[in-house]
From TrEMBL:
<feature type="transmembrane region" description="Helical">
    <location>
        <begin position="158"/>
        <end position="179"/>
    </location>
</feature>
<feature type="domain" description="Cytochrome b561 bacterial/Ni-hydrogenase">
    <location>
        <begin position="64"/>
        <end position="210"/>
    </location>
</feature>
<dbReference type="GO" id="GO:0022904">
    <property type="term" value="P:respiratory electron transport chain"/>
</dbReference>
<dbReference type="InterPro" id="IPR011577">
    <property type="entry name" value="Cyt_b561_bac/Ni-Hgenase"/>
</dbReference>
<dbReference type="InterPro" id="IPR016174">
    <property type="entry name" value="Di-haem_cyt_TM"/>
</dbReference>
<keyword id="KW-1003">Cell membrane</keyword>
<feature type="transmembrane region" description="Helical">
    <location>
        <begin position="110"/>
        <end position="127"/>
    </location>
</feature>
<keyword id="KW-0812">Transmembrane</keyword>
<protein>
    <submittedName>
        <fullName>Cytochrome b/b6 domain-containing protein</fullName>
    </submittedName>
</protein>
<keyword id="KW-1133">Transmembrane helix</keyword>
<dbReference type="GO" id="GO:0005886">
    <property type="term" value="C:plasma membrane"/>
</dbReference>
<feature type="transmembrane region" description="Helical">
    <location>
        <begin position="199"/>
        <end position="218"/>
    </location>
</feature>
<feature type="transmembrane region" description="Helical">
    <location>
        <begin position="66"/>
        <end position="90"/>
    </location>
</feature>
<dbReference type="Pfam" id="PF01292">
    <property type="entry name" value="Ni_hydr_CYTB"/>
</dbReference>
<dbReference type="GO" id="GO:0009055">
    <property type="term" value="F:electron transfer activity"/>
</dbReference>
<keyword id="KW-0472">Membrane</keyword>
<feature type="transmembrane region" description="Helical">
    <location>
        <begin position="27"/>
        <end position="45"/>
    </location>
</feature>
Length: 254
């Protein structure tokens, strides 16, 4: 398809895809509603929230280093803000305009840029298959890399975070960096629309795996978030839910 709105004729990029997205974006809130509903049903179907039987609350183990806690909590806070501002941008026809909307759009770009190094660092330290590498010191190594091993579903969540996080980082950086000039305005706008579509699709897909991770670590099992905040986890909690982590800690002391 050719267009010539901003100058001479030029080829549009995937007009049928972009048009379909524009026509159906009113259905997107229902898609996220289905995701939340599915996790709610799974929560009750699996017996609700699990809780370790803690009889010795004072017997705790240092699991997370200060560096790990900083990266994890910063990633959580940034992603919460990006989701909120991203929804505000995507559903702008519902939230409307005004100074608040402009502020959220601007800060979405700035905070998104700040998320790039955080995403990269968390991708590296959460690579729990690093057991194949030769480690100079387990004690120092585990202050950088997270302890434990991945169960199959958790590994899928991690790989999805890496893959679709990379898509969000790349597309978000392009959208922020690429700015049209008078000679290339139309072509650049078309390209940015395509990248924006990819950016949204990446956020929609990664949200499912993020919600699943939040459900698995925070909602379905009590005790994860306090451990990340303080860095210490009750030994009985590890014995019941994370024996692989406890085994690594024991091996460090040998």
């Amino acid at each position: 398809m050719e267009a010539g709105v901003f100058g001479g004729p030029y080829n549009t990029i995937a007009p049928e895809v972009i048009r379909a997205y524009e026509e159906r974006q009113v259905l997107l809130p229902y898609v996220f509603m289905v995701e939340f509903t599915a996790f709610t049903i799974a929560f009750f179907a699996m017996g609700g929230r699990k809780k370790a039987n803690i009889t010795r609350p004072e017997d705790t183990v240092q699991v997370y280093s200060l560096f790990q806690r900083f990266v994890i909590l910063l990633n959580i806070l940034i992603m919460i803000y990006l989701f909120i501002t991203g929804f505000s941008i995507t559903f702008g026809n519902i939230t409307g305009g005004g100074s608040i909307a402009r502020f959220m759009r601007w800060t979405h770009e700035v905070v998104g840029l700040a998320w790039i190094p955080v995403w990269l660092i968390l991708t590296i330290i959460a690579f729990k298959d690093h057991k194949f590498f030769i480690r100079p010191s387990s004690k120092f190594w585990n202050k950088i890399f997270l302890r434990g091993t991945y169960k199959p579903m958790y590994r899928i969540n991690y790989l999805a975070y890496v893959a679709f996080g990379f898509l969000l980082v790349l597309s978000g950086f392009i959208l922020w960096y690429l700015f049209p000039d008078p000679k290339t305005h139309a072509q650049v706008i078309q390209f940015k629309r395509l990248v924006l579509f990819q950016h949204f699709m990446g956020s929609a897909i990664i949200s499912f795996f993020i919600f699943e991770t939040i459900y698995s670590y925070v909602v379905s099992v009590k005790g994860y978030l306090p451990g990340v905040i303080t860095g210490r986890v009750p030994r009985e909690y590890l014995e019941e839910f994370r024996p692989d982590v406890l085994e690594e800690i024991k091996n460090e002391k040998k």
